[in-house]
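From the thread on structure requests for the teaching lab: each student submitted one protein with a one-line request. Submission from student K.M.:

"Model Transketolase from Romboutsia weinsteinii, tokens only."
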Amino acid sequence: MKSLQLHANNIRKSIIDMIYSSKSGHPGGSLSAVEILTYLYFKEMNIDPQNDKKQDRDRFVLSKGHAAPVLYATLAERGYFEKDKLNSLRKLYSPLQGHPDSKKLPGVDVSTGSLGQGISNAVGIALGAKIDNSDVRVYSVLGDGELQEGLVWEAFMAAAHYKLDNLVAIIDNNGLQIDGKNEDVMNIYSLKDKLKAFNFNVLEVDGHSFEEIEKAFDNARNTKGLPTVIIAKTIKGKGVSFMENEAGWHGNAPSLEQRNIAIEELQSKGV
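Reply posted by the TA:
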């Protein structure tokens, strides 16, 4: 897992730098999802950065589209485009907009941003793959605050109804959204009980442990007749001490001083 840890640390540094450069963006929920995307793009998914449109590739949908920096940083780390493009985040005419745009950036399968619509697209793609008797697998990362959208539960209901065992939804359960704690804004718990009632294969992991993430994806691959949801317990702002578990870092950019502190902390990890 050493190489995965190295990639994750590089991705975190890229997230900080690109959001600092743009003076806007969403660091908290991007940093919390780093290990999940690192494992997907470097171990789990059948993909080819040199042929990002190949028919039999697995698909990824970032349902919480505002966390675009983690997707962009991961795609660059994986070789879909040069890392020097990252500092164009949110700038005019840049392919790296505030939310992912599948028409502008290699590796983006679905344009997302409106919460709830990403997982709905993922369900549709997974159903299409089933109809075509394709081996394509579909992965979608949702925010836990996103689960307050009714559209999410309609998608979950359809996924279970059509027995989409080629679909894996991953909930980035960092416990915070823009206005504070999830349970204070609109309580979503108990997620495990709700999702089991929706007839999902439900797994709970430490979302920063590659070992637990690996076991969960292996379990999902071996599960037949049920879609899988992985509830990944994470820390918002993971890796940067002053951002961790702080709802205020949901959508704020660091100052130069804060950027320097964050990069120094990440470099000191010794990965």
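TA comment: The two ends are 11 Å apart (CA to CA). The chain has a mean pLDDT of 97.
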